[in-house]
Amino acid sequence: MRTIVRSFAEQVERRPDRVLFELPEGRRLTYGETDEAVRRIAARLVADGVRPGDRVAAQVEKSPEAIALYLATLRIGGVFLPLNTAYTDTEMDYFIGDAEPRVLVCGPEGRHRDSVVVETLGRNGDGTLMEGGELHDGVHDAAAGDPAAIVYTSGTTGRSKGAVITHGNLASNCEALRESWRCTGADRLIHALPIFHVHGLFVAVNLTLATGASMDFLPAFDAERIIDLLPRATVLMGVPTFYSRLLKSDRLTPEACSSMRLFVSGSAPLPASDHAAFAARTGHAILERYGMTETGMITTNPYDGPRKPGTVGRPLPGVEVRVVDREHGKALDDGEIGAIEVRGPNVFTGYWRMPEKTAAEFRDDGFFITGDLGRIDEDGYLSIVGRDKDLVISGGLNVYPKEIEDLIDASPDVLESAVIGVPHPDFGETVVAVVVAKPGRELRPEDLLGFIAGDLARFKQPRAIRIVPSLPRNVMGKVQKAELRRRYAGLFTGGDRA
Ligand code: MLC
Ligand code: AMP
What we know:
Blueprint: H1 4-14, E1 19-22, E2 28-30, H2 31-47, E3 55-59, H3 64-75, E4 79-82, H4 89-99, E5 103-106, E6 117-120, E7 147-153, E8 161-166, H5 167-181, E9 188-191, H6 198-211, E10 214-217, H7 223-229, E11 235-238, H8 240-246, E12 262-265, H9 272-282, E13 287-292, E14 296-300, E15 314-315, E16 320-324, E17 338-343, E18 350-351, H10 355-360, E19 368-376, E20 382-387, E21 392-394, E22 397-399, H11 401-409, E23 414-424, E24 428-437, H12 445-453, E25 464-467, H13 481-487
Parallel strand pairs: 1-10, 3-4, 3-5, 5-6, 9-10, 9-11, 11-12, 12-13, 24-25
Antiparallel strand pairs: 1-2, 7-8, 8-18, 13-14, 14-15, 16-17, 17-19, 19-20, 21-22, 23-24
Helix pairs in contact: 1-6, 2-3, 5-6
């Protein structure tokens, strides 16, 4: 198996002077220079005591050196743990306690933590991580089943789970995407995604490194800057919010997109109306694909052939997808709605130190239960029609209601709460908390937000809090979230009925 590290090494040898990263301020790094940064960091990590199987956690700003850190970790057999820069100290304490990394790389302000070696890395490649003149030689001989990364995804029980992703998962998914999307060394990708999730890291970066392509590496999404870069780029990958925001600019024209060959959308549903509007404005049919942290990419609309709006296309090469009856796992006929299950070399090995949770999400025949609901049409295209899991996806970021409900319910003034997702014009969906006060207690939304804010990354915080006398329940006593979602559906899109 050709690991991502090996594929990158081949490109370094083949085209050392090719630019890999180009940053908005003009800084550039070639494949050769990136390789040197990788080897420098690898030497530093080894000196810090990282051995094969050890975790290296990173909560750092987006930079070429942050990618070099990822590659360096894999190169020495370490396990990379990317963490959202928005996480609070409370959230970080959990991840570090659970994953027990040998090294934590954080921003230049880095602070001491017990039992972890702390290194720093700033957005300009500054910090202790880059100190030291040694360059590491050799590459750890990773097997396909060896862990390469642990990526945390929040859980429906409120506790985040670390998905253990192997070298084989990364390599096979990269190869399947390269083939499906016709990626080559001639590509120039506009990279505006965060690098702590599978979309920005494993899809966008791995594909670039493995094919010898170049990236415009932007610190964050910026519609006008992306439109400036489009005329010399070939590929853009984004979440649906990227496309709805790009459509707001008059500068998005067919001329601006004349060198582009591919616009990819994923991580959340792309409204068919945005697909149509984008095609009308640019002449490009956005290619929508479907993936998950646990599985990498699963399906894609075709490169050649019809891209059907509202569908996520067909399984990638080597990946099996089925839609089954939720209760018994029995395969359903085309057109019927059921649970989406996946099997293939892309599927992770399990959740870090959670064997029961892992077992509960796999069928005996090896299929992974995604928690998404879908249907397959007569041409084999999958549509995602809903979720079997209580999850909100805001701007492509997952938020699990249970985690927020637990924090809200810890307030001495709160009797109970229900957190839901409602339609939002920019983020697709956003978080709303519906809360019942304890009898005799006065509850103000702003105080409640203040109560939870310190423990919760900003993107997970409710954008509206509604205090109500009681929550709707069914005969079994279960809170009817569907009823709440209906009630508050127009909160951000007009027509608030509540
Ligand atoms: C930022 N904020 C968000 C948010 N992103 N709030 C809710 N949801 C989000 N996604 C907060 C900011 O902290 C800020 O708070 C306020 O919202 C406005 O921020 P902004 O400047 O408008 O946001 P911006 O920085 O432009 O970010 C929006 C975004 C970004 C959509 C561009 O969130 C993004 O890049 N999302 C992509 C996430 C991603 O990569 N997902 C892939 C997961 S992998 P305040 O209070 O300061 O105003 C996966 C598998 C797969 O799902 O299939 O790919
Ligand atoms: P994550 O756990 O962050 O990897 O998010 C994975 C989830 O994102 C999936 O289980 C889906 O619910 C959702 N998702 C990813 N891509 C799409 C898509 N193209 N359309 C709809 N939902 C998607």
